Amino acid sequence: MCTKTVTKPKAILFDLDGTLLDTAKDLGETLNLILKKLDLPAVSYDDYRPVASHGAMGLLKLGLGDNIKAYDIEILRKEFLSTYQANINLHTRFFDGMRECLKQLQQDQLRWGVVTNKPEFLTTQLLAHYPEFSLSGANISGDTLPVRKPDPAPLTHACKLMDIDAKDCWYIGDAQRDIEAGNRAGMTTLVANWGYTYDPIPVSEWQADYIIEHPLEIIDKYK
Prior knowledge:
Layout (H helix, E strand, L loop, with lengths): L10 E4 L6 E2 L1 H14 L7 H4 L6 H10 L8 H14 L6 E2 L3 H10 L3 E5 L4 H8 L11 E2 L12 H10 L6 E5 L2 H9 L3 E5 L17 E3 L3 H7 L1
Parallel strand pairs: 1-4, 1-6, 4-5, 6-7, 7-8
Antiparallel strand pairs: 2-3
Helix pairs in contact: 1-3, 1-4
């Protein structure tokens, strides 16, 4: 982890799943619905939660295991997405402290936005359930541009929409690709260690500027 001097940002960008919203149970239960149709055993919450940030493909690989080559993974991916869309906000919620964090950012006149790898049709549908996102300065999804994270382009595109220089922006996420994208964009990067941070590479080796354990630490960092 770096020891960069903290400077107050002009904007903060967030990953969505595992950073702003706890979507793991809706994603994991979608996986289990697919597995049930295939007469395969369900995956427990403890097993699917750490993989939730890896999306449909990551979860399908987890659930299918050694059986994965026996199926058309692209067909299953599309079925996963349509099933998830129908159940997108049954159990999802803000992480504890995140609503308060976003409210404080507004009070401090700090702009904020979302950069996620989630497909746009799902991002739009999910965010509509939460009034807070009407205040977001940019909502960039995995298919907004031809590339997605860990490419830095979605982050720099969000900055352009918000009229903010990337060096004056923080990016917060719970996956290594988030930190890589933020670093490549020249942003200050923070690991949301309350999220789905499972990865073969330890969080301490992701080259983030900071690792934080609770959303309200974001406020503490720049105050």
